[in-house]
Amino acid sequence: MFQNLIDFLLNDFFITGDPLILGAQVSIGLSMVAVVFALTYFKKWRWLWTEWLTTVDHKRIGIMYIIASILMLFRGGVDALLMRVQLAVPQVEFLHADHYNAIFTTHGVIMILFMAMPLMFGLFNIVVPLQIGARDVAYPFLNSLSFWMFFFGAMLFNVSFVIGGSPDAGWLAYPPLSELSGSPGLGQDFYIWGIQISGIGSLATGINFVVTILKMRAPGMKLMKMPMFVWSVLSSCITIMFAFPILTVTLFLLFIDRYFGAHFFTLDGGGNPMMYINLIWMWGHPEVYIVILPAFGIFSEIVSAFSKKKLFGYKSMVFALMSISFFSFFTWAHHFFTMGSGANVNAFFAVTTMLIAIPTGVKVFNWLFTMFRGKLTFPTPMLWTIAFIPCFVVGGMTGVMLSVAPADFQFHNSYFLIAHFHQVLIGGVVFGYFAGLYYWWPKMFGFKLHEGLGKWAFWLWNIGFYVCFMPQYALGLMGMTRRFNEYNFDMGWQPLNVVSTVGAFIMGLAFLFQVWQIAHSIKFYKKEPTGDSWDGRTLEWSIPSPAPLYNFARVPVVDSEDAWWEEKQRLANGGKPKPLAPLEPIHMPKNSAIPFLISVSFFVMGFGFVWDWKWMIIPGAIGVAICMLARSFSYDTDYYIPVDEIERTEAALGGTK
Amino acid sequence: MRRYIRVLTPLLIMLMAVLLSGCGEQYLVLDPKGPIGESQKDLIYITTILCLVIVVPVLILTGYIVWRYRDKKGNNAPYQPNWNHSTKLEIIWWSIPIVIIAILAIVTAKYTYELEPSKPIASAKAPITIEVTSLDWKWLFTYPEEGISTVNYLQIPEGTPIQFRLTSDTAMNSFWIPQLGGQIYTMSGMAMTLYLQADEIGNYYGSGANFTGEHFAQMTFNVKTTSEDDYKAWVQEVKTTAPALTQEGFEKLTEPSVETVQSFSSFPEGLFQKVVMQYIGEGGSAHHHGGSTAAEEDTNMDHDMDMSDTDMKDMDGMDMNHDQETSTNQHSH
Amino acid sequence: MAQAVTGHDKHGHGGHGHHDEHHEHEHESLKTFGFWMFLITDIILFGTLFATFIVLRFSTDGGPTAAEMFKMPGVIAETFILLTSSFTSGIAVLQMHRGNKKGLIGWLAVTAVLGLAFIYLEVSEFIELVHEGVTIGTSAYWSAFFTLVGTHGLHVSVGIVWMTALIIQLARRGITPVTQRKVNIISLYWHFLDVVWIFVLTIVYLMGVM
After folding, report:
1. I need a labelling partner for A525 at 20 to 30 A (CA). Which of A115, A210, B117, C146 fits?
2. Cα angle A3, A5, A9; round to 5
3. Which residues of C touch A261 (CB under 8 A)?
4. Distance (Å, rounded) from C-alpha B154 to C-alpha B263?
């Protein structure tokens, strides 16, 4: 009996026999022990539970999102470097084929769903309520639930690396390869449940922020007076609301195929694999706009702040954002022009795809003309913004080239495509979120990140990026297709692959510089003297850094899109400070353990489904149900912060307003 | 900042020069050997130029603005903090991309119809049909007219259009010979059509461009293009010297494995058709797999257009479309 | 500014003073608005399932077809029951507006019981199909059928549990702004499921036997 258990653990449960994975297992084990030890030694368990795990404060949830996404960036980045090593020296067989396949699959999933999405949600959480003058998001409880669903979904996905086996059917898992017939292992089940659980969290976040933005704005902030970042979040979240249910259904159907033997996407029984590919891209294409739109918002904020000038063409910008999110739903078939959809369909989707270039191009012009006749300074957030423009313009241009359907027959699945989407995703999304992270960092933590190290990281990232991805365009034209783990030396692909790998390592080095930068800035902590670190324009800069629990002691009244800037201008021109309204008690949500517990239950249930262990599925499902009922029956969910406490807090913070 | 830009710009330009100057033999896509690949290369150049018309000025403008309006002592560039709107300017930069995209859209639409893969290539010569089946992890090519078949190797005569009919035994792959022209997916239960032609004698690289599992990277093949006489001689040679591909032999090939180049003097009757139809039930009602007639598809399509309760009607319609064009071929048998 | 600030009651549901009620009202209407947003996503969810069903509607792989298997009397009974339950949930809301707690609870209970009857009929239909040899794995058509109809059934089941929980809360707390909002939301949800069922009836059953 005991021997059976040991056999099971060594043969099926844990992945054994690969030195890389063994290393990962050991280091995961050690770091878990270290964390537990540290928490116990410093008596921090209670602190962790009450201040973080059960918090419903959007600022803390945002910080947790960001920490998780940086960890995921590390994992996805290591995956990328492993792939690049293999491709630089394919003769060595550094990675075995199935290991390589697992790694490109997890790299894709992690970078999009567990790095870009949470980093984006982290910024939403930290910035949106502060920019619209709200005390929290519309549904703080749901917000916490979203985070924990994401977190445990990501954990479920990541655990497959050391337990049960990684998915290896590509990041979108096309059937029939991802069906039981093509992927009998557990990896694909981890994929389904990991993404499904975190996807529910994303959907909830989408709803939450749409309502927050529509209903929670400070008095006077009409829609057309919202900061551009808030607009971009709105367009992104509306896209989430319409796209994510499709993902939920698609993964659900794949699960039913694999678990109950249904025939949605199977080869036999009348199944239709093409339907999966349509469905997954009906989510997948809007998904890339979901992550890029907020980056556009961030650039708009930063370009205006560091040009000391109003954002140019506000109405055009809003219209562009909204039309991009609308058109993003009508382009999905450009991912499979080569599936013989016929000339009518291909021509239609080629043109809809190109149409997106129009509003995007307009946005670029508006950013440029925001800088035009401005006064430009170049701290790190602005550097990332300026580096973004050429990178994204070129990436967008290759995107338009790919959208030309007959030409795409030659680009499809080649490294040209790989180079294109990395250029828009790194040059657009990653640069954008980095810019946002540097920009709002002082608002989150009350200190700035070290500028010198930040500039090193910036230049290394940029040089590494071009060295890595420009050769990949060439490789695509040389006929190299994606997902090859090896190639023949005669093809002449090796020199450029080596160059590309060097570039990837430069980006890896750049990441280390950022880690160093954060560590250095914490060590030499220098408190920001005011809450207005960058001479900002929007409401978040009008309150202390980090913001107090209730954000605004008095709800601000807004009359322009640069409310804080206008107020500062008015005061500088001899205007009188507005009389302060008397403080009143502030209504706040109470912390709750339920989101954490529901998500743990979901994790247990998902893990049970992966292994088909009823004894885990049933308790997991019951746990979910009990938590939901417990929430339905709890009425004591909020409280008031009394006036004297607000007064004390404000006095301690220096009462900046 | 300035210093970095000065260093970086020439570096980037050099990098691009290195990448682009080598538009020689290695750049398979830019060195086509057939009419389809040739047109696609032209199209790539046209679209690149059209894009550059707008991209290059934007890049220059970016550099100029960043340089001109930097906040530096002695920089007396104008500063207008509240200038945030100009209808005239905005109309200009809404129109520029609209014009470029309109031109591009017209070019694209024209080429899309011209280069539709299932459209026969105009030629005095009758096309040769080759059936392509992607297996895990090898390519099986059957020549129905010659009655021979090969694995991981193609030989074709120069100057003759080739009608490829493609399917897959399992997961979907993509059949790509960059120097002859663009790729097309091979999908189980469907027969796709792709016309290509080689105008020069030579050896061309071919590959499976879509991931199909563990050893898909091994699914490369050589396309040897010879004169028509040499091609006939080769067919004759295979017919007389190579072994036959039996049903068992084929079933053995369908098992996951990596194979070297092989040739066979014959293959089981209707093999390709059987592979296409293997997953389609007795009733043949699986219309989405291309098992029904084109007329039926038309009525189905009308149905779908009525079902406009979701945004997915396009998908359905598209699926139909796809079948329409492949099923016609299939049913001519 | 004033609307975001409330009275001094620490727990917020005492109902003293004008400010407090106003605030609570706003808080609850926010949740109702969010529920509408959720319904939009649920519409997309069902829309996707309907679309897959439509794509696969002839994919019976030579096996049994809908026309051979469907027994319309049961389906019509289900429809009748669900439509009635939608009506009774409407009456419950009317009773709530009249402040009649007993009527409210009673009609909600009737609604839940009708929902249970619906689920009972649906499950029996499924069991009968399985006995006759038609399962989710029979063909793509039946996969789509069981998934679409089953997802609707699952929604109804969740609704029943939720309604039961709400009945208990109403019995304990009476009609307050919070419970009132909850009743409104579940009634919205129930009507929504009714509308979805009409589509199921039309697209799955009626078009299936036609």
Report:
1. A115
2. 120
3. 136-137
4. 10
Yes or no, beta carbons of B118 and A174 under 8 Å apart: no
Is the distance from CB of A114 to CB of A191 less than 8 angstroms?
no
> In terms of DSSP bridges, do strands B153-157 and B221-226 run parallel, antiparallel, or are they unpaired?
parallel
pLDDT at B4: 60
Instruction: List residues bridging with B263 in a β-sheet.
Output: B150
Of residues B281, B313, B316, nearest to C63 (C-beta): B281
- Which positions 571-610 of A are in contact with C (Cβ < 8 Å)? 581, 584-587
Q: How many CB atoms lie within 10 A of CB A3?
A: 7
CA dist A514 to A127, A152, A380, A381, A510, Å?
A: 22, 26, 12, 13, 6
Question: Are the beta carbons of B286 and C59 separated by less than 8 Å?
Answer: yes
Task: Check CB contact of C143 with chain A, cutoff 8 Å.
Answer: yes
Q: Around Cβ B48, how many Cβ atoms within 10 Å?
A: 17
**Sign of the torsion formed by the C-alpha atoms of B47, B49, B54 and B56:** positive
Rounded to an integer, what distance in angstroms lies between the CA atom of residue B42 and that of residue B36? 10
The whole-number pLDDT of residue B296 equals 35
The full set of domain ranges for chain B reads: 29-62+90-115, 128-281+308-315
Under CATH, domain B128-281+308-315 is a member of which superfamily? Cupredoxins -  blue copper proteins (2.60.40.420)
What distance in Å separates the CA atoms of residue A57 and residue A591, rounded to the nearest whole number?
A: 8
Q: Could you say which of 3.40.50.720, 3.40.47.10, 1.20.210.10, 1.10.443.10 is the CATH number of the domain covering A44-592+637-653?
A: 1.20.210.10
> Which range scores top for mean pLDDT: A25-29, A246-250, B284-288, B318-322?
A246-250
Contact A256 C136 (CB under 8 A): yes
For residue C84, CA distances in Å to C74, C93, C113, C115, C120 come to 15, 14, 11, 10, 16
Read off the pLDDT of each residue in A520-547 and give the average, rounded to a whole number. 93
Q: Which residues in chain B are contacts of A486 at CB distance < 8 A? A: 217
Q: Which residues of B touch C53 (CB under 8 A)?
A: none
Of residues A29 and A242, more confidently modeled: A242
Where in chain A are the domains? 1-43, 44-592+637-653
Distance of CA C1 to the CA centre of its chain: 38
For the cut 80, the answer to whether the pLDDT of residue A295 exceeds it is yes
Length of chain C: 210
Query: Is the backbone peptide bond immediately before B137 cis, with ω within 30 degrees of 0?
Result: yes
The residues in C 16-55 lying below 8 A from B, measured between CB atoms, are 44, 47-48, 50-51, 54-55
Query: What CATH architecture is C25-209?
Result: Up-down Bundle (1.20)
Give the chains touching A; criterion: ≥3 Cβ pairs < 8 Å: B, C
- Whether the CB-CB separation of B216 and B173 falls below 8 Å is answered with yes
**Tokens for B114?**
């011209």
Q: Is A397 a residue whose pLDDT tops 90?
A: yes
Distance from the Cα of B287 to chain C's closest Cα (Å) equals 7
Alpha-carbon distance B43 to A407, whole Å? 6
Residue A21, number of CB atoms within 10 A of its CB: 18
pLDDT at site B227: 96
Domain ranges of chain C: 25-209
Summarised one tens digit per residue, pLDDT across range B40-99 is: 999 999 999 999 999 999 999 999 999 999 988 888 889 999 999 999 999 999 999 999
The pLDDT assigned to B131 comes to 97
- Collect all residues of chain C within an 8 Å Cβ-Cβ radius of residue A632: 162, 165-166, 169, 182
pLDDT grade, residue B23 (50/70/90)?
low
Residue A554 contacts residue C1 (beta carbons within 8 Å): yes
Residues of B in contact with C210 (CB under 8 A): none
Pairwise CB contact (< 8 Å): B212 & A177: yes
Please list the alpha-helical segments (H only) found in B74-219.
Answer: 87-114
CA angle (A501, A505, A508) in 5-degree steps: 140
